[in-house]
Every structure is written in C-alpha cells, then in structure tokens.
C-alpha cells in the first residue's frame, strides 16, 4: 500500500532523513519516535509533499507520490491529511470554517473565496465535530478553544478531507496529559472505526506503546527500529534516545500508582 | 467520553443554528460594506463641493507648482550648493527641536507610563486621572500649543520644543504603558520577593524588559517630531520650516531657494526614517515593527 | 470669451478672524450672486500666498489684495489677473504708508538706533510689511537688510498683527506695518493694523513711537481673473465700482475700514511695485 | 574557568557597566546643556511676557464689555468685546452703566467713571483723575505725587489699568473695559429675541412651537457662529476620513508589490518602496502647498494631501505586515491540497485584516490632528479658524472654544477608533 | 519557629486557602503537594507577603509576619527567599546581576540603580554560583541559559539573600527531568549543609517522597495531609488529587524503564 524507498532529505549539508525505507501493507496505526531533530517531522512532511524529498521514492498504491505536480499533487495532499503539533488552524476563523477547509481541494476556488460552502458540507462538518465531542464549540473562533479542543478541530479538518492516510506530527506535544489522552484516543478511534492508516510522530514511549500497532524509531535521520511496541526494550529505547544509564526519569514522573505501575502499563499494551 | 453519544436531532439543530448565524453575519458584513462605501463616496463629493477648485478641474494642473518650483531651481542650478550651506544651520535647529523634545517626551513619558500601568502604579487611584491627562496631551495638536506659547514667549525654537515635547509625553506615555502591559510581571514579582522597593522593581525589573521597545517607539517618535518641528517652523517657531515658508510664499524669484530647502528637508526625513527603521529592526530583532501613531 | 461659469469664488485676506472676514464680505457675496445668477462663495486662505496660488491656479476669481501680492501674481503669470479698482480713502486719496515703530522704553527712536538690533517684517508678500521697507530702508541706512549687516537680525513675524505683538513684547526691537497715516497717533491713526490693535486693547500707543515712514504706496487693488467671461468681468467691476454709493457699509466691510469707495485703476499704477519685487527676487 | 579569573573578570565587567550607567545620563545632560545654550533658554525669562500670559488666561474664561465715548460728539457706544456684532442697541446697556446726559459707569469696588465733556475716574485709595480732551490734548489732572505704575499718561493719551477694568482716553475717544466672567453671548446675541431668557423661559418657547426659530438663532449666533464652527469641524473630520481610508485603499494593492514574499521581482519591489519613501518624505505639509495650486483652498486639498502622505506610510506598514504573516496557517491550509488563491484567502487574508484595520484606525485619530494643521496652512476646517483667531491675538475665548472642540473631536476619534478596533478585530468571530 | 494559625485567603467569593494551620519547629525540608488550584502557591505567597492573608496569623520566631508594613515587610521578604516556577529572573540582565538582586533590600536604592554593588557582594555571588555549578555562565544574560540553569540562578539569588527560609513554588515544573533532578538536589543540599528551612510546592509525588522530610497535602484550600513521606499511601494520594481509578497518568509518562520502575523508586525513597 504505502512504500518508502531509500527516501533521503538534505538541507544544505545536513541530512535530515537518511535513506529511510519501510512498507505498510494494511491500514494500521504507526508511531514514529525519536529525539528532537531525528527527522520525524521531515519524514511526514515529505509524505504530504509539504517538503520535497531530495532522493528516493514514496509510493502509495502504485502511485509515485514524489513525482506529483500541480493539481495532482494537491489532490494527493487532500487524500493525505496532516495534523500539526501547533494545530496550524486559522485562529481568527470559526471552528466550522476551519473544518470546511478540508474540502478546499474539491470545491471551486470562486465559491470558497466567498465562504460559500454547500449546506451538506456544513452538516457533515458538524457531524464530525460531534463525533469528536466538540460540536458545541462550532460557532466559536478557533483561537478561543483550548489546545486539546483545537487539536480536535485539526483532526476534524483532516477527517473532512476524507483522507486515505492521516499524518500527525507530534499531535499531543502541546497538550496537557488529560487532553493528550483525548486526542490520542480520537486518532485511535478513527483508525479502528474507519480503517484509515494513521501515522503519528510521538515524543513519548508510553504513548506509542499504548496506542500504536507498530513503532518506528529514528535516530539522526535513519530508521533504527521498526517493529511491534512490545519489542521496544529499555535498551532499544535508550539507543533511540541516546540516553545513558545514569539518568532516571522516575524523578519527575507524574504517575500516582508508583507502587504498582508496571502490571498496568503492560496490561494496556496487551489490550491492543 | 460522555459527550460523544450523539443525538441526531441535536446535531441537526447545531447545524441549522450555525447556518442561520453565518447567513446573518454575512448580511451584516454586506450592509457595513455598503454603508462604508456610501460614506466614502458622499464624503468625497462633499469635500469636492466645499473646495475652491474641483477635483476634476484641478487634477490636470497638479504638476504646475512643482514644475514652476523645480523649473526655477534648474535655471539657477549653480546657486544650489550655496543655498544648501546657507540653510544648513536652520536644518540643525529643526533637528535639535525634534531631538530635545523627543528626549523630554521619552523621559517624562516613561515616568508617566509607569504611573498609569495597573500592576506597576504606586498610587492606584492616580491611574485613571493620569490617563486622562495623557489623553488630553495627545489630543492637542502641537500647533495649538506652539501658537499659544509663541504669543507668550515670542518666536523661536523653545515654544516648538515645549509644544512637541508635551505632545510626545502624551503619545509615548500611552505607547509605553501599552508596552508595560505586555511586560512580564515575573521579574517584578521576583524582585518583590527579595524585598525590593518600587524604584528598584521598576528600574531593575521592568525597564530592562521594555527598553528595546521603548527605544524603538522613541525613534519612531523622533521621525514624527522632525516633521512636526518643520511644520511648526511654518507658523513661526524657527528652524527650516520658517525659511521654507518665507521662500515658498514669495514664489517666483525665490523658488530656487525653496527647492533647496525642500531637498534638504526631504533628504533629512528620508535619512532619519531609514536610519531609525534600521535601528528599530535591530532592536526588535526582526519582530513586527511597532504600530505607528502620532 | 463666450464660455459660462458655474461658480464665482472670492478670496479674502485681512487682519481679522476668518469668520469675521466671511461675515463682513457676505454683502458683497450676495450682491454678486444675485447679479451673476451663479453660486458665489467666499474663501479665506491662511495667508497672502493662499490667495496668490488661488488666482494663479484659477480656483479664486476675485480678490482685494496688497500691491505686492498682486505683483507676485503678475510676475508668475502676466496674463492671470488684471487690477480693476482701487480702494479710495475717505478724503479722496488713494494709497497708504508703511510705518516703522518701536517701543519707547527700548530706547529706539530712529532707524539709527536700530543698528545691531532685531528688525521685524510681516508676511513676505506684504507690501508695507516687507516689500517697500526692504527697498526704501537700505537706501536710508546705506546697508542691506541681511542678518548682521546693519540690523542684528531681520525676521518675518508672519503678519501685521504678529509684528505689532512682537514689538510690544520686545521679541523684536522694531517692526513695520501699515497705516493710512490720517488722524491721531494716539488712536493708532484712523485706519490700519495699529488702529485695530489699539481698539482691541492689545497695545497702548503711549508705549510706542514711529521711527520711520515710507513714501506713499499705491492703494490696494481689486483684481479679477482674466479667464472670466467678459460679461462676468463687467458685471463684477460695475458692482464694486459703485459700491461706495450703493452700499457704503458693504464697501467699508470689504475694505476693512472707512473708505469712500472704489475707483478704476490699471496695471500701470503698480509697475514700480513689480519692479521692486523683481529687484528683491533672485 | 579558573575561579580567580572569573572573579576578577566579573568585577571588571561590573565596573564597565557602572561606567555605561553613568555615561548615558551624562550624555543626556550634556545634550540638554547644549540645547539650553543654543536655544537661549536662559534668555527666556526675560522674553516671557507675563502680561500676555495673564491676558490670555483671563480672556479665555471672561469677556470684556467696552463703553466708549466719542469725544467729538459725546455719543456713547456699548458693546461686548468692542465688536459691532456685540453692540447694545442705542439707549440700552448693562445695569452697571447708567445712561443719561452724563453717563456713569460703575466698575464695582468703588471705581466710578463719569463721561461727558469732562471725563473723570474715581479710583479708591488713590483719588480722582479728570480729563478734558480737546484739540490740544487730553488735559488730564491727577492727585498730587508721582504717577503710580498703573497709570500710563502722555499729553494725548492716558491709560489706567486696575483690577476691575481698564480706562483709556485720547483726544478722540474715551473708553472703559470691564471684565466679567463667562463666555458672553454664547447662546444668543443682544439683538436676538431670545437674549437673556432663562432656561425655563427658553424651554417654554421651544415647546410652544418656536423650537426651530430658537435653534436658528443659536446656530447663526453672529458672535460665536456655531453653525460655521460645526462645518469647520466637519470639514476637518472629512479630511481625516477621506485621507485615511483613501490612502488605505490605494496602498493595499501597492503593498503587495513591495512585499518580498508576494513579489519576487526585486526591481519592482525596490520601485514600490522608494515610491512609499517619497510620498512619506515629502510630508503632508508640502503636499498641501503643492496641491493648493491645483485645487485651491478647501477640504478636498487637505484630504488629498493626507491621502498622498499616508499612502506612503500605509504602503510601508502593510508590506511589512505582509512579510510577517505566520506560515503555520498557510501551511495548514496548504496541507489540505488548497489552491494558491485559496491559500491567500484563508492563510493570509484573515491574518492581514486585523493588522490593516488596526493601523488604519490608529491613523484616523492621528490624521484628525494632521487635518487641523493642514487646514491651518491651506485654509479649511477648524485649523484655519483656530490659527486666525490666534493671529488676531485678542479672541482668546474663541481660541479656547476651538481648542476645546478640537480636543473633544480628537478624543472622540480616539475612542471611536478604539471601539471600532475592538469591535471589528476581536468581535468578528467568523473572520469572514 | 514558623507557625501558621488559621490562615485563610479569599479571592472574591473563592477561598484559595482555608484556615491552614501547621507548625515547623526545626529547620527541615517540607514538600507541599496538591492538584492545580489547591492553594499551594497562595500559601507560599502569603508567607513571603507577595499576597496578603485575609485572616489568620503567620508568625516566625514570635514575629507576626502578617502585620508587617513598608520597610519592615520588605526586610522580612529579604529573609524569606522565594523561588518561582518560571524563575522570575530579569531575563535581559546578566546572571551575576540577577544574583546580586538578592541584596537589594540591604543596599541603597540609588546605588543599586547605578549598578554600584560592593566588590565583596560580587565575589560572594560568584561563590554561590560556583557552589551551584553554574559559575561559568556568570557573564551571560539570564535568558541565554537553559531552564535548569535559570532555576539555579534563582536559587543563587535566594541564597544571596542569606534567608532564614527558602520557599520554592513548583521549582521544577518548567524543567525537563534531567534539570529537575539537579535543581531538587541543590535545594536538598542547601537544607542539609546550611540548615535552612526549605518549603517547596511540588506537583509530583515522587519528588516529594524522594527529597522531603515532611509532606503537606492540600485540597481545595484545606490541609488534608501532614506527615512523613512514608505515610503517603496511594489512597491518600488519590484523595489529595481527587483522581478516580480510571485515569492513568502512565499514558504520558516520559519514563524509560517502564518494565521495572517500582523497585527503583522505592529504593530512592529508602535511600533518604
Ligand atoms: N526547513 C529546514 N531547513 C533546514 N534544516 C531543517 C529544516 N527542517 C528541518 N531541518 C533540519 O532537519 C533535521 C530534522 O528535523 P525534523 O524537524 O524532521 O526533526 P524532528 O524529529 O521532527 O524533531 P522535533 O522533535 O524537534 O520536531 C534537523 O536537524 C533540523 O534542523
Ligand atoms: N490573584 C488571584 N485572584 C483571584 N483568584 C486567585 C488568585 N490567585 C489564585 N487564585 C485562586 O485561588 C485558588 C488557589 O490558587 P493557587 O494558585 O494557590 O493554587 P495552586 O495550588 O498553586 O495551583 P497550581 O498548581 O495551578 O499553581 C485557585 O482557585 C485560584 O484560581
Ligand atoms: Mg518535529
Ligand atoms: Mg501554583
Ligand atoms: O500688502 P500689504 O497690504 O500687507 O501692505
């Protein structure tokens, strides 16, 4: 279905993504982990064609995504929705308008200029918002919403595109734990109910373990791990993050059940 | 998530309500646009009818004056350098008026701004009265104060300096207080927690944060004040504006001098503009330039 | 010239409030409006130059102006306007004087005493406030009017009223303004800028003295734009020519003081003024 | 770093800082000293005219009534501010003047002036001053002793200035000024049927169907000319409105030409920017003069002058705002496959709108002030009334009236523009 | 030594701190925990007199702190140093100047405004920075430092005050795990080496358990727990935080060793 073949991206002398190759055969939820600068964002952006690959081929159902130009490229972008860490909504426009931006590729330029969307699109947008639990905020400006709500608007915009793939670039990095949970659950639901492929860059291992079917680990632009979450051992994780053994993150854990966390986390992972 | 349980009717209601709302808003926006355009057009015709010459009659003669002025200047081009030297001292006076009044305006504006910013003000009940004072200082055109002062003090640079300084206090006081409002209270609180008094909190906690913005606004004010000081010269307050007015109103026969003065003034304004623009860009480090008000 | 006009515009100058000027010239406006049958409007520009530019640009059709201002228009464009009538004083004479004056307590009693002191002109386009003194005084003192040559400093105060206040305040040591030279000194004469200042209580003539007086200056002309149709020119000329008889109050208002009326005049009366003006130009 | 070096380096750094902290105030003080000398501020104390200041202040809240006798025919004229439009009808006058063969003016506090062929002034605490003006002089007689400071006498003229008023006599006329509080004749002039009516009586007139007549009398008040003043204010506002919004409309398309991210053509961008610099650099003052040749005096000239200057200003500001647009929003819209025009519409336009509006509205207030100044230079609006009133140097109560109106107008524009900014920028939830 | 007696603070109708009473007899390190809005910050701010108590008395060595005014109040503040979550340094000033601000109360206003600090103060400031391991950053601007370094500058400023008590309001909430550890260790060292009382608001239980001698738990303005860290059971913690059993914070934990965290955390606690 989706294939990355030796995809490389260099910025000047700096190689952001280094001959990344992997294949996705069936819809699944994939988490990409790696520390800052590892090339996670660049990887997703190349898939959505916000950034052009320097070399290598990305193909989807036989279509060479990297070669698309003009209208064909935009049409591909509309099938490959992107969710950003900073939401990238139009903050001064209302929530429904932001969601309706998901239809821009399909509608005529002139009618959208004047904000003339078909009524059925508006109803569909509101249904999607309902599904994500934020329909009551429909008439508000995007900037008036909390981070978690804004991210759900961004997801709604993505769903409005009716995409084949949803890409999410650190979708919960700007969110507090409670909202993070809601957003990740929404993405998981979309994958499970609609059967869409979801690829998410994540900065926390726990999240990847809990929600993803497959985890890809990147370090310095290269893919250094690709497998089931269960196979992500402490040693592997340390390698991905380049952390040394002296460092304990337990110091700042926000966990309540410090006395018995391990079984629960394992149970979460098992539940998937 | 409890709110995920969808009630179909409710969804329909939300959708219809939203549709009704945006339609109403679109109508309102349309009406506002029409009203605005009507005001603009009728305003233009009112102004046209109250003017001595009409717009369409005059538009063809728009270059008569510049042509007359620069024609004479070109005819007597060899005299130009002499004029430039002759009027240079007046230019310096104009710049001095602007610089001194900007400095006074910035220093007193700074004090005022700290007194009128809620959270910084040492005497909270003075905040509102002092804000009104700033409003009034800002509202009086410099020319009004200058003319009145000329009556009492006679012509010369001092009335202009006082007039521009007063206006600058009002303008900068307000801008500075807006900057203050965006300043972080954290350092101030940090200093309060070590037992610092008001002066120390302001000087060490606020000023370092806001100084670049202050400076940027003060530079902008300097640009504006150069123009203001040239204009005040026009009504008798010294500087290059005075010479410009006398030569320009004499007309044919002294247009060459007027052109020389005009060139001096124009070059100065552009130079100060560019310089202060550069400095402001450096200060705000590529951030949006502050909004310009005068 | 057969074209018709759709509006007639009068430019007014003088030492009064813009509003007062509008008011005193209202009678002229309505008379002309009735006679021409087109809307007639009054404009009060801020200074002499405003009227000069208006006449040159064709946005003002008629004005009563100082001889030097007329000369300014003439020098810029000989074909723009023609002087048609001149103000006639109550005693039948035409013309007025430029008078130099100073405060008694400043110790200035004559032009000689002004050496090294500050001298004040009015508006650069004023005949009595600049042109005539700048021609006649250098002949008397045998020096130019440049800063520091004979006078310590020479400056323009902006207008007759400002000159009087500047002298009274001591901002300048001596200044020049206009007067008809008739009547008593202590009243500020019967007509002129000094009289206005005395009447409004601005100065006390006991405090100041005359230090110089010019030769007689040709009277202030009423000028009319040449591009106007002949019938309009004729009608307007006729109205003002007979104003002294038909509406003496209006004539007084237009002139800004007691006059007996207006008499015809031609450009020839102002050739000396034009020459003086050219001499003062670069 | 070795600790000792660190210590000494820091101490050195602090003494450097100390020097800078002292240098800045010193430079400022030095500059002010230079200004003090070059502007001759010291000489100011000699030049300042306290009398003028006092006249100005007292005139701004009081008025004077002139009572004048023509010494040749003995006729008496009483008028407010000595102006014809403030004249009392013959045979009438305020209650402190008793008209008759011999007119007596009671200035209060015992100051009595008697007119007639012999004019006398009884000054409490000094004595009686008499004068018999004729062709030879005023022939004044004073109590024994040196003349006090408040009397300025010569053979042909005597002036006496006291706290209650001012008395002048020359061969031709004798005149008394009495100062009273308030802006006299502000509502109706003496020849108006409504002069002197109390609020209750006026209200009665208004309700008995004379409302428009009363309004007309007030509106055309010859002394204060409220109608004309209103039109002048309106013209000033009109100049600001037309100039500001006209400039915004002209500048917006030009700003795209000058923005790096919207116009890749460097030469065109350069040309647009220099045009803006030129328009701004010439300044409204000069534009006014240049345009007044073509358009003559009036509000249109002022509007066009503001329009030209502000096209330069807005062009610069707008193009800077365009260069500062946030790419995140554009990227968000782009990621859905939006076409380039749609990217501008949804990624750029909503960001620009508030910036543009806010800048334009800021200038609306500032241009109200500019319009006042421009009016003073070319002729139009309240600025002209103001400068002319100041130039005559006597109508200070009118000057005060105009200044108050200008301040109120500018503050109203400030409030209005602030209100509009909040309303339009924060309030339009849809951003449509 | 330090005594809170029915100290209450209301903001409008909202009671932020509700009749809080406790006594501290000897220098110790106290952790205050509680969820957001529990009143932790308000409690500390009342002690430093940044906020005035509505009622109740705070006394220190017999001095009624709540009654102080003007110079006496500022003098108390100088003895009771405060460390903030957001550091509250003057970001554009250099590190040493920020540390020297700790002496403001002792020096004359004019001399401090002209940067006239005695040389011995400068030397002492550098010694303190040395002790906290950030002396090499002395000439840099505060804003150029990482969060953890900035917080240590704030601690240095506090030490410069030579205070009787050090208050720390969520000192590690803005820090990454690595820096959090350093900062908490610095506070602990100060308590142990100088014998000063340290009171810290903490948002993580682990931290409180690991570093404090005594833990005070707050909920809705009231003190609901006051005792040894060992006595803080999961049930008590749940009560303090008002968390229900369904919500697991493990979702967003940044911990690496998920498979064997419990023994290590317990070992940490035991080590104290
Ligand atoms: N537009 C660009 N121009 C130049 N270099 C870039 C650009 N975008 C990314 N890079 C560089 O490419 C490398 C990979 O960046 P990328 O944003 O993909 O990392 P990331 O894994 O998403 O990190 P983070 O977690 O910080 O978002 C980094 O070294 C970054 O500096
Ligand atoms: N200045 C204030 N004005 C009004 N209410 C306030 C103010 N400061 C705090 N509060 C309220 O008092 C209550 C306690 O606030 P406080 O900041 O002490 O809580 P906290 O435990 O420190 O929470 P957090 O963990 O969020 O810092 C909250 O409900 C808060 O909204
Ligand atoms: Mg990234
Ligand atoms: Mg808190
Ligand atoms: O030209 P004047 O009327 O001012 O002499």
TrEMBL record, chains A, E:
<keyword id="KW-1003">Cell membrane</keyword>
<keyword id="KW-1278">Translocase</keyword>
<dbReference type="GO" id="GO:0016887">
    <property type="term" value="F:ATP hydrolysis activity"/>
</dbReference>
<dbReference type="InterPro" id="IPR003593">
    <property type="entry name" value="AAA+_ATPase"/>
</dbReference>
<dbReference type="InterPro" id="IPR003439">
    <property type="entry name" value="ABC_transporter-like_ATP-bd"/>
</dbReference>
<dbReference type="GO" id="GO:0015416">
    <property type="term" value="F:ABC-type phosphonate transporter activity"/>
</dbReference>
<dbReference type="InterPro" id="IPR017871">
    <property type="entry name" value="ABC_transporter-like_CS"/>
</dbReference>
<keyword id="KW-0378">Hydrolase</keyword>
<keyword id="KW-0813">Transport</keyword>
<protein>
    <submittedName>
        <fullName>Phosphonates import ATP-binding protein PhoC</fullName>
        <ecNumber>3.6.3.28</ecNumber>
    </submittedName>
</protein>
<dbReference type="InterPro" id="IPR050086">
    <property type="entry name" value="MetN_ABC_transporter-like"/>
</dbReference>
<dbReference type="InterPro" id="IPR027417">
    <property type="entry name" value="P-loop_NTPase"/>
</dbReference>
<keyword id="KW-0472">Membrane</keyword>
<keyword id="KW-0547">Nucleotide-binding</keyword>
<feature type="domain" description="ABC transporter">
    <location>
        <begin position="2"/>
        <end position="245"/>
    </location>
</feature>
Automatic annotation (TrEMBL), chain B:
<keyword id="KW-1133">Transmembrane helix</keyword>
<feature type="transmembrane region" description="Helical">
    <location>
        <begin position="224"/>
        <end position="242"/>
    </location>
</feature>
<feature type="transmembrane region" description="Helical">
    <location>
        <begin position="258"/>
        <end position="275"/>
    </location>
</feature>
<feature type="domain" description="ABC transmembrane type-1">
    <location>
        <begin position="91"/>
        <end position="276"/>
    </location>
</feature>
<dbReference type="GO" id="GO:0005886">
    <property type="term" value="C:plasma membrane"/>
</dbReference>
<dbReference type="Pfam" id="PF00528">
    <property type="entry name" value="BPD_transp_1"/>
</dbReference>
<keyword id="KW-0472">Membrane</keyword>
<keyword id="KW-1003">Cell membrane</keyword>
<dbReference type="GO" id="GO:0015416">
    <property type="term" value="F:ABC-type phosphonate transporter activity"/>
</dbReference>
<feature type="transmembrane region" description="Helical">
    <location>
        <begin position="27"/>
        <end position="47"/>
    </location>
</feature>
<dbReference type="InterPro" id="IPR000515">
    <property type="entry name" value="MetI-like"/>
</dbReference>
<feature type="transmembrane region" description="Helical">
    <location>
        <begin position="95"/>
        <end position="116"/>
    </location>
</feature>
<dbReference type="InterPro" id="IPR035906">
    <property type="entry name" value="MetI-like_sf"/>
</dbReference>
<protein>
    <submittedName>
        <fullName>Putative phosphate uptake ABC transporter permease protein</fullName>
    </submittedName>
</protein>
<keyword id="KW-0813">Transport</keyword>
TrEMBL record, chain D:
<feature type="transmembrane region" description="Helical">
    <location>
        <begin position="399"/>
        <end position="420"/>
    </location>
</feature>
<dbReference type="InterPro" id="IPR035906">
    <property type="entry name" value="MetI-like_sf"/>
</dbReference>
<feature type="transmembrane region" description="Helical">
    <location>
        <begin position="371"/>
        <end position="393"/>
    </location>
</feature>
<feature type="transmembrane region" description="Helical">
    <location>
        <begin position="20"/>
        <end position="39"/>
    </location>
</feature>
<dbReference type="Pfam" id="PF00528">
    <property type="entry name" value="BPD_transp_1"/>
</dbReference>
<protein>
    <submittedName>
        <fullName>Putative phosphonate uptake transporter inner membrane component</fullName>
    </submittedName>
</protein>
<dbReference type="GO" id="GO:0015416">
    <property type="term" value="F:ABC-type phosphonate transporter activity"/>
</dbReference>
<keyword id="KW-0812">Transmembrane</keyword>
<keyword id="KW-1133">Transmembrane helix</keyword>
<dbReference type="InterPro" id="IPR000515">
    <property type="entry name" value="MetI-like"/>
</dbReference>
<feature type="domain" description="ABC transmembrane type-1">
    <location>
        <begin position="233"/>
        <end position="417"/>
    </location>
</feature>
<comment type="similarity">
    <text>Belongs to the binding-protein-dependent transport system permease family.</text>
</comment>
<dbReference type="InterPro" id="IPR005769">
    <property type="entry name" value="PhnE/PtxC"/>
</dbReference>
<keyword id="KW-0472">Membrane</keyword>
<keyword id="KW-0813">Transport</keyword>
């Amino acid at each position: 279905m989706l294939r990355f073949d030796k995809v490389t991206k260099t910025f000047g002398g700096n190689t952001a993504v280094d001959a990344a190759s992997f294949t996705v055969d069936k819809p699944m939820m994939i988490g990409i982990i790696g520390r800052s600068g590892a090339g996670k964002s660049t990887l997703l952006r190349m898939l959505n064609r916000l950034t052009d690959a320097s070399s290598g081929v990305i193909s989807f159902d036989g279509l060479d995504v990297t070669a698309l130009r003009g209208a064909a490229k935009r049409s591909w972008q509309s099938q490959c929705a992107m969710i950003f860490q900073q939401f990238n909504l139009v903050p001064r426009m209302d929530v429904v308008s932001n969601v309706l931006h998901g239809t821009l590729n399909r509608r005529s330029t002139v009618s959208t200029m004047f904000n003339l969307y078909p009524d059925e699109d508006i109803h569909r947008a509101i249904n999607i918002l309902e599904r994500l639990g934020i329909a009551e905020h429909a008439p508000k400006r995007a900037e008036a919403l909390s981070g978690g709500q804004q991210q759900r608007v961004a997801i709604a915009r993505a769903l409005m595109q009716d995409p084949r793939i949803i890409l999410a670039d650190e979708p919960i990095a700007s969110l507090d734990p409670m909202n993070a949970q809601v957003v990740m659950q929404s993405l998981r639901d979309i994958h499970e109910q609609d059967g869409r492929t979801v690829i998410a860059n994540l900065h926390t291992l726990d999240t990847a373990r809990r929600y993803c079917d497959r985890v890809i680990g990147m370090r310095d632009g290269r893919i250094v791990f690709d497998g089931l979450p269960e196979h992500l051992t402490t040693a592997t994780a340390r390698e991905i993050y380049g952390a040394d053994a002296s460092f304990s993150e337990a110091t700042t854990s926000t966990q309540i059940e410090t006395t018995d966390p391990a079984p629960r986390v394992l149970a979460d992972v098992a539940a998937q | 998530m409890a709110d995920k349980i969808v009630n179909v009717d409710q969804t329909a209601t939300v959708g219809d309500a939203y549709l009704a709302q945006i339609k109403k808003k679109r109508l309102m926006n349309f009406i506002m646009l029409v009203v605005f355009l009507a005001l603009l057009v009728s305003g233009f015709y009112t102004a046209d009818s109250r003017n001595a010459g009409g717009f369409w009659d005059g538009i063809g003669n728009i270059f008569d004056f510049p042509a007359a002025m620069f024609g004479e200047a070109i005819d007597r081009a060899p005299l130009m350098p002499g004029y430039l030297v002759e009027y240079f001292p007046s230019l310096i006076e104009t710049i001095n008026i602007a610089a001194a009044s900007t400095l006074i305006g910035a220093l007193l504006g700074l004090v005022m701004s700290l007194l009128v910013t809620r959270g910084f003000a040492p005497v909270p009940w003075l905040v509102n009265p002092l804000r009104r004072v700033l409003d009034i200082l800002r509202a009086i055109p410099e020319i009004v104060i200058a003319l009145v002062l000329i009556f009492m003090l006679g012509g010369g640079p001092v009335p202009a300096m006082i007039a521009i300084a007063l206006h600058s206090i009002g303008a900068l006081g307000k801008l500075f207080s807006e900057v203050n409002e965006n300043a972080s209270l954290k350092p101030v609180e940090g200093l309060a927690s070590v037992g610092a008094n008001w002066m120390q909190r302001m000087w060490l906690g606020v000023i370092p944060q806001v100084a670049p913005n202050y400076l940027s606004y003060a530079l902008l004010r300097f640009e504006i004040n150069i123009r203001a000081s040239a204009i005040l010269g026009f009504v008798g307050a010294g500087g290059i504006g005075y010479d410009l007015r006398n030569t320009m109103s004499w007309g044919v026969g002294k247009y060459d001098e007027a052109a020389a003065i005009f060139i001096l003034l124009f070059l100065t304004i552009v130079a100060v503009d560019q310089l202060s623009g550069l400095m402001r860009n450096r200060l705000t480090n590529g951030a949006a330039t502050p909004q310009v008000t005068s | 010239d057969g074209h018709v006009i759709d509006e007639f515009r009068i430019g007014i100058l003088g030492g009064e409030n813009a509003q007062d000027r509008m008011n005193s010239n209202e009678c002229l406006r309505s008379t002309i409006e009735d006679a021409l049958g087109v809307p007639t409007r009054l404009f009060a520009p801020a200074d002499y130059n405003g009227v000069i530019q208006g006449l040159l640009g064709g946005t003002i059709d008629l004005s009563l102006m100082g001889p030097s201002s007329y000369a300014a228009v003439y020098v810029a464009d000989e074909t723009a306007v023609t002087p048609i009538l001149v103000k006639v004083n109550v005693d039948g004479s035409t013309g007025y004087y430029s008078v130099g004056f100073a405060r008694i307590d400043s110790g200035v009693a004559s032009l000689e005493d002004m050496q090294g002191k500050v001298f004040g002109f009015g508006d650069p386009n004023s005949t009595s406030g600049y042109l005539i003194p700048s021609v006649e005084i250098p002949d008397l003192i045998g020096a130019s009017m440049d800063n520091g040559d004979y006078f310590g400093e020479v400056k323009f105060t902006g207008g007759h009223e400002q000159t009087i206040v500047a002298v009274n305040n001591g901002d300048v040591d001596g200044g020049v303004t206009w007067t008809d030279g008739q009547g008593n000194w202590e009243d500020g004469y019967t007509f002129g800028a000094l009289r206005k200042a005395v009447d409004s209580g601005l100065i006390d003539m006991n405090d100041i003295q005359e230090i110089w007086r010019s030769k007689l200056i040709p009277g202030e002309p009423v000028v009319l734009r040449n591009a106007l149709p002949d019938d309009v020119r004729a009608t307007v000329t006729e109205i003002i020519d007979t104003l002294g008889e038909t509406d003496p109050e209006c004539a007084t208002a237009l002139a800004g003081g007691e006059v007996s009326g207006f008499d015809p005049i031609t450009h020839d009366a102002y050739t000396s003024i034009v020459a003086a003006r050219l001499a003062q130009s670069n | 770093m070795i600790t000792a070096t660190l210590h000494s380096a820091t101490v050195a750094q602090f003494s450097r800082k100390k020097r800078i902290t002292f240098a800045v105030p010193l430079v400022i003080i030095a500059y002010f000293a230079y200004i003090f000398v070059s502007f001759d501020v010291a000489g100011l104390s000699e030049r300042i005219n306290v009398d003028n200041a006092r006249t100005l202040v007292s005139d701004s809240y009081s008025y004077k009534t002139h009572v004048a006798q023509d010494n040749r025919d003995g006729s008496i004229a009483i008028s407010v501010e000595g102006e014809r439009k403030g004249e009392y009808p013959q045979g009438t006058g305020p209650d402190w003047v008793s008209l008759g063969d011999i007119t007596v003016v009671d200035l209060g506090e015992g100051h009595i002036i008697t007119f007639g062929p012999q004019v006398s002034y009884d000054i409490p605490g000094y004595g009686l001053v008499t004068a018999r003006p004729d062709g030879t002089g005023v022939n004044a007689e004073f109590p024994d002793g040196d003349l006090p400071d408040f009397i300025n006498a010569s053979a042909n003229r005597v002036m006496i200035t006291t706290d209650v008023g001012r008395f002048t006599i020359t061969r031709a006329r004798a005149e008394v000024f009495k100062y009273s509080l308030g802006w006299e004749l502000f509502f109706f002039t003496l020849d108006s049927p409504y002069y002197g009516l109390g609020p209750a009586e006026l209200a009665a007139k208004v309700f008995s169907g004379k409302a428009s007549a009363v309004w007309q009398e007030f509106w055309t008040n010859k002394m204060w000319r409220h109608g004309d003043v209103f039109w002048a204010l309106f013209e000033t506002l009109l100049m600001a409105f037309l100039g500001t919004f006209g400039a915004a409309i002209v500048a917006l398309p030009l700003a795209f030409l000058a923005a790096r991210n919207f116009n890749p053509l460097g030469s065109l961008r350069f040309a647009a920017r220099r045009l803006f610099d030129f328009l701004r650099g010439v300044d409204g003052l000069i534009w006014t003069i240049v345009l007044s040749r073509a358009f003559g005096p009036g509000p249109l000239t002022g509007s066009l002058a503001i329009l030209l200057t502000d096209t330069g200003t807005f062009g610069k500001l707008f193009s800077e705002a365009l260069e500062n647009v946030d790419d995140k929003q554009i990227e968000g819209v782009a990621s859905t496959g939006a076409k380039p025009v749609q990217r501008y519409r949804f990624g750029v336009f909503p960001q620009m709108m508030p910036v543009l509006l806010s800048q334009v509205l800021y200038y609306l207030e500032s241009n109200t002030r500019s319009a006042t100044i421009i009016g003073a230079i070319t002729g139009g609006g309240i600025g002209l009334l103001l400068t002319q009133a100041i130039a005559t140097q006597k109508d200070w109560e009118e000057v005060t009236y105009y200044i108050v109106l200008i301040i109120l107008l500018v503050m109203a524009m400030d409030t209005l523009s602030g209100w509009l900014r909040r309303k339009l920028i924060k309030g339009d939830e849809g951003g449509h």
